[in-house]
Protein 1
Amino acid sequence: MLPVAGSTYSYAYASLGEGAAYLVAWCLILEYGVAVSTVAVSWAQYLNELTDALFGFTLPDAISQPPGAGGYVNVPALVVVLLCSLLLARGTRESAAVNAVMVAVKIGVLVVFVALTAFRAENFSDFAPHGIAGIGVAASGVFFSYVGFDTVATAGEEVRNPRRTIPLALLLTLGAVTLLYILVSVAAVGAQPTGRFGEQADAGEAVLAQILRDVTGAGWPAVLLSAGAVVSIFSVVLVTLFGQTRILFSMARDGLVPQVFRRVDRKRHTPVHNTWIVGVLVGGLAALVPLQYLADLTSMGTLVAFVAVAAAVVVLRRIAPDAPRSYWVPLYPVVPVLAAGSCLYLAYLLPGITWTLFGAWLLLAAALYLGFGRRHSALRADEGRKGAAPARHAETGLETAAADRPRV
């Protein structure tokens, strides 16, 4: 319905208003920006696993592990973020081509892992030792793993026929991710007792590669998986960074963040300054912040943003009932209500420190909105369009395959 850059931010802007959209955008900065840091941290672990198997050396823990896990500065995490920033700055088409190859490698490696692991039914004998509450706490902690499928929606201005392509891509991607995660999880739990996972994580091990080594007794499967993980994590960082830059681009177009974030390089048609600013800040987080704080904050930002998506569906049905829609949510309003309720429940289960940090994050967002956003808002400057989104979705300069970019 709104095939524009910005994803959840743009949906909230059109349905919930500018102030709410600004806070949602800051949730998305947690979702995308901090998620990149979370994923980048694990890149060093698989890189060490790979170099150890191939060349017999590993980087010292001090520069390859996150703070709190034996490290001081995670240099590989910073490097992978900057490399992805370089690729994104070069152009969207180049990034998409590279990413397509990496996704194929990623899926192939996961299929190999599922095929080679030995399944022991006794590892499932006590299936949920902590009951439903335990499942909920675990789900809230790993929810950040699903960040990525919604990145599809941030590219609404850079794909062909977005009204058809975006819904189809979202549903297919989420379905594929869910299926792969279930298969990998079942294979991993079937291969070893659940207590081993905590020990491996605390030791900074590349868990899936270690499982393959233990199960097969051979080194090559672990090497294969580690190589695939190095490629896979690069792909995740690349796509998530892309989503973050497009959200900031859309916010800058609305006047809510400095205009440097909307400047597009005339030759490459990409927001180069935006990309490098995000890359440096995110790389710093990945290098210097403990992993657990990153993961939980990412989950919190994602969950709150998804609540806003569900709310936007309901509000847009009321304020624009006759607007053209290429996709209708089934079983409305049950699905949006269940979506919002389940996300709020998972957010409730996150640790208290995460709520404290998230509250501080939103207070900072509110202060920046009052101090900068309201003063420079394109909506408030456009007195002839009160209560509606400004004409900010005209020609942007972003690289696109569409002949006629949609306007909202």
Protein 2
Amino acid sequence: MTNAIEIRELTKCYKDFTLDRVTLSLPSGCIMGLIGENGAGKSTTIKLLLDMISRDSGEIIILGKDNRENFKLTKEDIGVVLDDIGLPEVLNPKQIGKIMRYAFKNWDGETYKAYLKKLGVPEKKKFKELSRGMKMKLGIAIALSHKPKLLILDEPTNGLDPIARDEVVDMFYEFTRDEDHSILISSHIVSDLEKLCDYIAFLHKGRLMLCEEKDVLKDGYRIVGGSSEDIAKIPEKAIIGKKVTPYSVEAIVKRDSIPEGMESSPVDIEQLFIFMVKKEG
């Protein structure tokens, strides 16, 4: 299987933050969710992928090409939605669609109109008059309307109500039914990513804590509860994180390290991330 994205030892240093030697791969035809708290490095990673900022070291390969060398044609194959949708404030979506005909060689005006209608974006309302949610929907419509092979999305469901989020998630899922299509999506709304993604990557304070197939994560870890003495029976290296109260201990542990006879329950991705971050803290 080829990879849509390959990142190796990617590093970017600021005065008060470092994205530290991040390495991950997104296989073609798959969706990867990039999870992390505010300031974890999600947006920095995406800006580096798009060559919007320069990296200090490391390697980025997108759709088979280094993202700093002869990348102009490759960008035609990438649909992008950033947290801040930067479009001319005085133009309406209909006018913006006409401009996009000149920005993308594969622009499909009819597809664009269909997405605007499906997402309920008013064609003749100025961009500055649109709500944050409507601006995000417009960005998604643009990203999907020039036949991209890869979507890179930074908090694309931010500002959307639950019904609209569900609809957008379904559209992304439909996009990857083509095995040549892939998505990298960052979000702090973990429930959206858990439903949508094949792979999950955890960023925390600029470090990649974990990158794995979602099903492997969910199958490989369980929640156990009991007294401190009960939890002490589990090897410390098998404990991802734990929450201690005066009355009991709750821990997320590797499934194959749970002592025989100890009860456990399934874990979701949000719980796994929270427990891992608490352990780091």
Protein 3
Amino acid sequence: MKKIIIAGIGPGSKEDITPAVIDAVATADVVVGYKYYFQFIKPYLKEGCECIDTGMKRERQRAEQAFDMAVEGRTVVVISSGDAGIYGMAPLVFEMKEQRGEDVEISVLPGISAFQKAASLLGAPIGHDLCIISLSDLMTSWDIIERRIKAAAYGDFVTAIYNPKSNGRYWQIYRLRELFLKERSADTPVGIVRQAGRHDQTVKIATLGSINLEEVDMFTVLIIGNSQSYVAGDKFITPRGYYREQQDSEEKKGRQIMIESFRTIESELKNRDIPLDKKWALLHAIHTTADFDMENILVADDNAVSRLYQKVADGELKTIVSDVTMVTSGIRKGALARLGVEAKCYLGDERVAEMASSLGITRTQAGIRLAVEEHPDALFAFGNAPTALMELCDLIRKGKAHPAGIIAAPVGFVHVRESKHMVKPFTDIPKIIVEGRKGGSNLAATLCNSILCFDDAEQLKPGRDL
């Protein structure tokens, strides 16, 4: 019988060669392939089996010789590393059969692909939709490869990268990272597996932002996670949807919606390469306002969110004071209770109206004066009244107030900008400022919430206390 068997021999270890491939090799009269791979099948060859090496980059000659041998009536096995149908010999052999019109039976035996072996060594990185891209432009133009990279990045596919780099082809992997970082966070996990399944195998996990691309070569397979991928210990995991569905009884549906919203917002930021501390506040601000101008006008001191969260966690910050009741209404009650923090607004205090009337000041100013007397070291959050913020600045300058932090987000047209500028000189006080005329009670409240749940920022899982 005229027969060609196309066999994937796996990535390189005997444990990863399937029994069907071993049986096929054992019955072959001729094995055609690249000589490097003969070492992996040599123990299974029958006596007298001929091994034909056509050398690197001579796939067409390899296929022609296989047909010549098969036409003579010999059983021919064509071997490829990994799976013969993935960047292997299978497509070429089938195409050649059509061209030659030979009456030769062709069968394909699958093998474990390099990306599958790499994934098993990394943990479970390909648990959801995935694609595979080769960066070799020997047979495919770079324009097409780049379109595929953009589609994979935009589509949030887990992506395995073959042929990432060679001595003469070095820049393509840098361009791939550049394109992925336009759609994915710099914290996205990346698995780097070199010589998967072979004696000099190495396995590493990095991120899109931190990976050392100089360590990558032709023997390396990269696996880039999707927006849900994460690292637990030394394992790279991409969750399946099923597990998340089972968690609905534990995590409210509203939180799941909020998590997806945050991921959407992050993917649309003009600049995602900002410190997590500021990004967490920014994501909250955009989620509340649907206003991406927040990227331009939300200003936060270095580590303001994390510093204030740490004060809460250490029990140093016990009180949040707001200028109006709408701010305190928007601060999550579950977070306050969980952390032992009280949110207060003094507008309803009976002393406020009397003080405002006797001193000729606004009620919000009076509320801040009373608040400073009782809680001079509180976190002060302003979402409505610029006069209240200006009052706090005056009290700070007089040494009567020393806030743990300030959220400056009053909204309006009169004294609003000025009040925010007045806050900036207090460099020793952590501040989050919404510059210009924009702001609002809802915005001040959500910035408070970003502080109270900062420990959820790294996993990008907001809404614990909804």
